Amino acid sequence: MPRPLTIDFVSDIACPWCAIGLSSLQLALARLGDTVDARIVVHPFELNPDMGPDGASIVDYLSEKYGRTPAQIAETQAMIKERGASVGFSFGPRTRIYNTFDAHRLLHWAGLEGRQLPLKLALLQAYHGEGKDTSDHAVLVAAAQSVGLDGTAALEVLKSGAYADVVREEEQHYQAMGVQSVPAIIFNRRYLVSGGQPVDTFEQAILEILAEAPQPD
């Protein structure tokens, strides 16, 4: 009988390690097959909450925020691209960073519609794979439609400002829990694994967590 497993995936669309981590986690779950019945719920975290509507150049932003040189940024991006390829995520050319708050609002709505994880994957691909502006409502609506959500309803959510308070409350909740970087992956509300870990690491962690969990009747 499959063992139930709740996975709370705290992340930001703007985070490349979140794309790597989610892909790696899914591969680990695929390896475990029918031994585990996993439910992944994504939660919001903003790396750049004050980002303006026009976004910012990646090189300029990372240079100012972390003091990195353009050469160091290029080296890191090449390493991230290689790690992504190893877990089946393709990073494309991307030159700008964008605000992600509206994307998080749309993800909350998608959760109510039962399409949250597919939308999360579509948004990560749009942002990191295709370099699209995921603060642009047209981009967000197209992503929603690509996973079977109603485009008119998605646009209404975005225009209305719906779920803004809920997203902010969730962000504050996980910050109060001590989450300061993402991805933060919480298994069964108890076990935290941080970062875009390799597939083997996620697989081993899940096996250990399931071994400690009470056996179902």
Topology:
Blueprint (H helix, E strand, L loop, with lengths): L2 E9 L4 H17 L3 E9 L11 E2 H9 L3 H17 L9 E2 L3 H12 L3 H14 L7 H10 L4 H10 L3 H13 L7 E4 L3 E4 L4 H14 L5
Parallel strand pairs: 1-2
Antiparallel strand pairs: 1-5, 3-4, 5-6
Helix pairs in contact: 1-9, 4-5, 5-6, 6-7
Textual characterization of the structure:
The structure is a single chain. This protein starts with a strand and ends in a 5-residue tail after the last helix. The model has no long low-confidence stretch (mean pLDDT 96). It has a single domain (3-47, 100-212), classed as Glutaredoxin (3-Layer(aba) Sandwich). A hairpin with a 3-residue loop joins strand 5 and strand 6. The strands form two sheets. The chain has a four-stranded mixed beta sheet with strand order 2-1-5-6. A two-stranded antiparallel sheet has the order 3-4. It has 217 residues and is α+β, with helices and mostly antiparallel strands. It is 53% helix and 14% strand. The protein is built from nine helices and six strands, in the order βαββααβαααααββα.
Amount of beta strand: 5-15%
Name the CATH superfamily assignment.
Glutaredoxin
Largest sheet: 4 strands, mixed
Report the principal-axis shape. globular
CA-atom Rg in angstroms = 17 Å
- Runs with pLDDT <50, length 5+? none
Number of domains: 1
- Look at the structure and give the CATH class: Alpha Beta
Question: How helix-rich are the residues, as a percent range?
Answer: 40-55%
The H-and-E topology, N to C, reads as EHEEHHEHHHHHEEH
Under the CATH scheme, the architecture is 3-Layer(aba) Sandwich
